[in-house]
Task: structure prediction
Amino acid sequence: MKNYLLPTALFGSITLVSYISPAVALPSVEVQQIAKQSTVQIAKCDIASGAIVQKNANIYTVLTVARAVKKSGCEIVAPDDTSYRVTEVKTFPNNIDLALVSFTSNKNYPVAKLIANSDRVEAGEPIYVSGFLLSSAGSPVFTFVKGDTIANPPNKQQSQSYSLIYSNNTLPGHSGGPVWNDRGEVVAIHGQRDISTKIDRNVGVETGYNLGITINTFTKLATTAGIRGYAPATLATRSKPVDDLIFSALQKESKGDYRGMLADLNQAIFLDSQNARLYYKRGVAKTMLRNRDAIEDYNRAIALKLNDSNVYNNRGYTKSDFGDKKGAIEDFNRSISLDSTNARAYHNRGNAKAALNNPKSALEDFNRAISLDSTFALAYLSRGNLKAILGDNKGKLADLSRAIEIDPNHIEAHENLGLVKAELGDTKGAIESFTRAIALNPKNAANYSNRGIARSKTADEKGAIEDFDRAIALDGSNAKAYANRGLIKAKLGDKKTALLDLKKAANRFKRQGQTASYNRILTEIRRIGSKGKG
Result:
């Protein structure tokens, strides 16, 4: 069904709505009304959104992201809730994340007005994202989210042609939805939320930044492909040094280069010392580097009137990371008061409450985070671990399984799933989970040690010893690995090397202050040493 050529005969010329976009800013409620008329839902094959950008007779064309329509069987749900079968999907070459999707209808739906030149969008301008999310009941809900333009660097693009950077608190269903200016014009197609792809899965920090593909990029591609009705904008490139530095910082962030990110933001702040979002973003870099000075940057952003939920969430996370759980909860409360849909703030508050031994309230926060974002793998992981503390191992098993279903490469979820399977007597399943965790991170000694214990329970002594060997090679302080290897060797009759391992384990337990384990190993040493003596 897909091809890369976009023949003129198929799409024809573009028919726009009868209204003319005003030259002055509109109230947000009016922009929302305009957006609702031409925003559609991508259903059946994905949960995504799109914008009607063309009408030719009874054929409508929707602009969305290409990944939303990769699967077959897609339907378009129009603004009046009527569903239509997708008749054609056209993608662009070079892995550009845009697609044109057609459907046929005799009804009259408005066509979105596209901005004439998206390079004119400036940092600080208000911006809106529209799209459809699934409610808890499973029905689509139109949402309209306000934010600000962070940067719009000319002639710079990340992978898949993303370039416009903005602050809106988007959710998965917004993907492919239109990004609007305050004159009711589409300036970009939204595609990536919380764009820091290399951020540790276990860090509860919101980058607060999203990426869209600009209309200028689309019109240039469409013209090259032969679609009539679009002329590429005449570009008068103007230097935007701060925008360029922000773009560079985000590229480095996506690669996990937080020191490089920090250097770029230091330069940007030197050029624009009153830009609150630069301090906020630098705080993110410092948080990722575990630099307590991140709190000062968040404070500065707040002092510059950045009254943003994510600023308080991130400051709270940093406070919690450095032991101030009560101060962290205050920040999470403020974050939630500013945005009651901020799933990460609920999740982080839950972790802080759990650390303060308030499991019931923590569980409520985890439940709320998941109800707000059913794809939040870390929230399932945290809730599962809390359920285990409350004695609900089966509940933990279900939550960890769901976390892995959402994020198959979540290392900690596989590690914890292995532990709970072992506790529930599923030794084979535990070995499978530890093996997966090892494949994802072959340098974690604990996973080899845990798999070794599981293998020993299946009478695979050779495999168990190999795992303990590897655990010790990676971490010579791993007392448990020495202890378990020694016990297996004793079982196999190798008394001499068994005692050497157990003595090493005892020394390490003693140095680590694990008195109970130290005394238990001393008992084993005496027991094994006494064998054969008459």
Summary: Confidence is low (pLDDT under 50) at residues 1-22, 195-199. The first helix runs from residue 8 to 11. The two ends are 83 Å apart (CA to CA). Residues 101 and 225 are 15 Å apart (CA to CA).
